[in-house]
Structures are given as structure tokens and as C-alpha cells.
Write a structure and sequence with these properties.
Helix content is 45%, strand content 16%. By secondary structure, the protein is of the alpha/beta class. The protein binds iron/sulfur cluster.
């Protein structure tokens, strides 16, 4: 398939550094099963607010909407730049290359580029991105005199009002970026040649295919690494897996013949090869014996803001804004559901704490999946509101971790494929349940976090209502899936083991 007419952007350069074939595949727009969320998209809503606040007083600046198509952004930006107008949220092209920018200000006969960075430390690859942008600008005839980086002060604690001067750190990075420019032009020329040459370049299997996370193309590039391969066995380091594959140990059969597996690996491999689930009755029975009814199932959602929205918060503070609780009076019963969502634009913490205290009775088991977050938030709230400390810490002491059953390998389903997240387990044991995550608008905690930020900044009531409904559906499923898993384990235990 020949490459389609795409713009070449800075991220293609980074992909090339990981794997030349990967950059080619991405440029050719090979469908990606899992869209990436990077730092910028995670903080997009806040960054757009910050950009408008920082550039609000630039005279005659053309503000391009960041949600416009690239074509519109390019047309509006290039028209404004041609008459030496400042541009906010712009896009610039030069030949096959395209780059987006936050602020390009024309003042005193000079161009000043402002880079708004949603983080604390500018990384090496971020300097490369700016060098790519500056090269595209220069090729388009715009020579930047100064480059300012606007990052976030991690120690900032918000008072009653937001102090932009205290929140933002301004640093001049002109020299550092300009030092990268001489090599950038030839890199871009080479990249263009590489991306527009057919067919796709061949590539050898390497650590880059497995780490930091497995490449989405791995089973396409190397068909032996399919669903029944050693990639889906946990507890083997990536280096070790690579060595096995290089020794032609790819399948689960080959792995079980080649080495002595740990207990966990043996369970995974035999469950997958026999296509049957594994249950350790003693451990599961012990878990059920420790429970009393009614049972509560609880899940918190938190948001992390780069720009603290409320008094007393610092960047990346973990703010609880939503919880879901299901309860069961007996194991085969239908669960009742309750939830909390603070639909105001003020700090939800106190209402959240009061609501969860009112809902959870003393002495009942409260099942969570991986208790770290819920325990941390309850302790954080106890510190923030000393008068509520006793009941909040009491709830923390009632937590029962469902994840511990899976950590101790009490149960494994072949469809878990070496993964132990709540969503994977639920998907494995109840694949036909119409309530599965892939039917939801929000499918993971990261998207829930982004949705809450959109809610805070959104002014349209209809959009806000739709965000609340989507968040509610997502959080409800996290506790509902725990109920389904527990009922499944109970049936498995007593159907087969009396
Ligand atoms: S699987 Fe490996 S060789 Fe294939 S595109 Fe990904 S990183 Fe490149």
C-alpha cells in the first residue's frame, strides 16, 4: 500500500528513533487499535484555557480554534502570518512538513515563539519538537528571534484566586533549540525520503517491539507472536522474552518445553493451552469465608489537574469527584446501586467525604479492586477534614481487596492473557454481558479524568449533562463488574467443588 498524503510531523521523527518501520506504518495511517493519550492531550482542556489567559492581551492576535481541522488551522494561520499578525494555536506547513504552535507573537519587528508545556520538566524530545517547528517556520520564511518555554511550577499551591505568574515558569530556550537546528534539516530530509519510499521497510525483532509497552504492530510484523505466544505470559522480563523469541521459543507449547515455569506461569500456560479456567478452591473459599453480608463494592474516580482549580490544591493533586457503590444482601441477589457526583464547579472533596460516610455502614466489608487508590483518598480526606477523620479511617479499615485473590493466583481465565486488570478479568468471564466497557463512551480512568476536566470548563448545560451521564455509566460498571466477578467465583467454587 503506498503512503497516503499525510503531513510529516515531529512525532514521526520520534517514532523513527524507536523503529523505522513503525514510523512508516504510522505515516501510512495503518489503523491503530488503541489511540494514544499523551501528556498534551491529557491536559488539553486546561492548556487551552491557559493559552487564552496568557495571550489575552496580545494586540491584533489571530486566535485559531484548536478544535478546527488542520486544514482550517493552516489556512487561518498562514493568512495571518503573511501580514505579520501574531497567531495563537496556529499550524504552519513547509513542503510535506507540518507543525502546530501555541503562540507566535510579532512584536517590535521580531517573532517570539511561546511554547506552553503541560508539565514540570522539559525533556530532550520536547526540544526536538521545538527544533522541528522552528525549521518548518524558517522554511516558510519566518525566522524566530526568541523562544520562550512556559512550564508549570510544581510547588504552586492555589490561593483563593489563580496567580498565573506564580503558576507558570517562563524560561528562554532559544540557544538550546537553535543548537539543534543544523542537524534538524538533514534529519527531516531523510525522514521524508524514508516515509515516502515503498514498500514498508523490513525490521528485525528487538526490545523496542516489546518495551516500554508492546508495539501495536507486533503480531503483524511477527505472526508467530500471536494470541497464543509467550508475549501473553506475565512474570517474564521483556529482555528474557526477547531472548526466548530469538531462540525460536515463541509459542506457549515451546515455552513450557524450554524451561521450568513458575507457578503463576504454569497456571497461565496450561489454562491457555487447555482453554479452561483455573481455580484454587481453598483460596477462594477462604476469601468467601472472610465475608459477611451485606457486601459493599466501592470505586473512586479521581482527577488530576495541572492548573489547580480550587483553593489549597497543587498541580497533579488527586481530587476525588465521583464514586460508585453497589451492595449485595446475598451472593445471588441483584445488587443495589448508589453513586456520588458533585455537579457544582467548586471543590467536591467535602461533599464527597460526607456522602461516602453516610452511605457505608460500620462493620460491613467494602470490596475494592486494588485498594491503594481508595485507601489513599480516604486518608487524604481524613487529613483535609479532621472532624471527619474517624469515620473516613473506619471505612479505610473495612476495605477488602478483590485483587488479592488474583495476585495469589486463586483464579485465572485463559482470556485474561497474562493481564490482571479489573476490565480484563470482567471481559474474560463475562464477554457477552451487554454492560461491557467497550460499549461505553468513557472506557478507562484516564478518559474519566479528562471528561471531568471538560465538565469543569464546559458552560453548555446539555454538554455537561451528557458528560455526567457518561461518567456515571463508567464508574457504575467498575463496581458492577466486581459484583459479577465475585458471583462468578462463587458459582465456580460451589458448582465444581461443593
Ligand atoms: S513490532 Fe517492532 S518491527 Fe514492527 S513496527 Fe513495531 S517496533 Fe517496528
Amino acid at each position: 500500500m503506498p503512503p497516503q498524503c499525510n503531513w510529516i510531523q515531529a512525532h514521526h521523527l520520534h517514532l523513527y528513533r524507536r523503529c523505522s518501520r513503525l514510523s512508516w506504518l504510522r505515516y501510512c495511517d495503518t489503523p491503530s487499535p488503541s489511540p494514544e493519550t499523551n501528556l498534551t492531550s491529557f491536559f488539553e482542556t486546561e492548556m487551552q484555557w491557559l493559552i487564552s489567559a496568557l495571550f489575552s492581551d496580545i494586540p491584533n492576535a489571530v486566535i485559531v480554534r484548536s478544535d478546527c481541522s488542520d486544514t482550517t488551522r493552516i489556512r487561518q494561520s498562514e493568512k495571518a502570518l503573511s501580514t505579520q499578525n501574531s497567531v495563537i494555536n496556529g499550524c504552519i506547513t513547509s513542503g510535506p512538513f507540518m507543525a502546530r504552535f501555541d503562540g507566535l507573537i510579532f512584536s517590535d519587528n521580531q517573532w517570539v515563539l511561546s511554547v506552553i508545556y503541560p508539565g514540570f520538566r522539559f525533556q530532550k524530545r520536547d526540544y526536538m519538537d521545538v527544533a522541528f517547528l522552528v525549521t518548518v517556520l524558517e522554511n516558510a520564511g519566518i525566522f524566530v528571534d526568541d523562544i520562550t518555554l512556559v512550564g508549570i511550577n510544581s510547588h504552586y499551591c492555589r490561593g483563593k484566586t489563580l496567580q498565573l505568574n506564580a503558576l507558570c515558569r517562563h524560561t528562554t530556550i532559544t540557544d538550546k533549540v537553535k543548537a539543534l537546528l543544523p542537524a534538524m534539516a538533514s534529519k527531516m530530509t531523510y525522514l521524508h525520503k524514508h516515509l515516502t519510499t515503498t514498500p514498508a521497510p523490513n525490521a528485525q525483532l528487538g526490545l523496542r517491539c516489546l518495551a516500554p509497552t508492546p508495539c501495536i504492530h507486533v503480531s503483524t510484523c511477527f505472526p508467530a507472536l500471536n494470541d497464543q505466544s509467550i508475549l501473553h505470559v506475565s512474570g517474564i522480563s521483556k529482555h528474557r522474552k526477547l531472548r526466548y523469541i530469538q531462540d525460536n521459543v515463541c509459542s506457549l507449547h515451546a515455552l513450557s518445553m524450554a524451561t521450568n515455569l513458575s507457578r503463576r506461569q504454569s497456571i497461565q500456560v496450561s489454562a491457555s493451552l487447555d482453554n479452561t479456567d483455573y481455580l484454587q478452591p481453598d483460596l477462594v473459599r477462604e476469601f468467601f469465608d472472610s465475608l459477611t453480608f451485606p457486601l459493599y463494592f466501592m470505586d473512586f474516580e479521581i482527577a488530576q489537574f495541572m492548573i489547580p482549580p480550587f483553593k489549597g490544591l497543587t498541580p497533579l493533586y488527586q481530587l476525588p469527584f465521583l464514586y460508585s457503590v453497589h451492595s449485595l444482601t446475598h451472593i445471588d441477589g441483584a445488587p443495589d446501586h448508589d453513586y456520588f457526583f458533585h455537579d457544582g464547579n467548586d471543590d467536591p472533596s467535602l461533599s464527597f467525604a460526607n456522602a461516602i460516610i453516610k452511605l457505608i455502614p460500620a462493620g460491613v466489608p467494602v470490596i475494592v479492586f486494588n485498594s491503594h487508590l481508595e485507601r489513599h483518598i480516604l486518608k487524604q480526606l481524613a487529613t483535609a477534614f479532621p472532624s471527619l477523620s474517624e469515620p473516613l479511617l473506619r471505612i479505610a479499615s473495612q476495605l477488602v481487596d478483590l485483587y488479592s485473590l488474583f495476585l495469589s493466583d486463586a483464579y485465572y481465565h485463559p482470556k485474561m492473557k497474562g493481564k490482571y486488570s479489573l476490565k480484563t478479568i470482567y471481559g474474560a468471564i463475562a464477554p457477552d454481558d451487554p454492560n461491557q466497557y467497550h460499549h461505553l463512551h468513557i472506557q478507562n480512568g484516564e478518559s474519566a479524568n479528562i471528561a471531568y476536566k471538560q465538565f469543569i470548563y464546559e458552560t453548555d448545560d446539555t454538554v455537561r449533562d451528557s458528560i455526567i451521564s457518561n461518567l456515571h455509566d463508567y464508574c457504575r460498571l467498575d463496581t458492577y463488574s466486581m459484583v459479577v466477578i465475585l458471583q462468578h467465583l462463587y458459582r465456580r467454587l460451589y458448582t465444581h467443588h461443593g
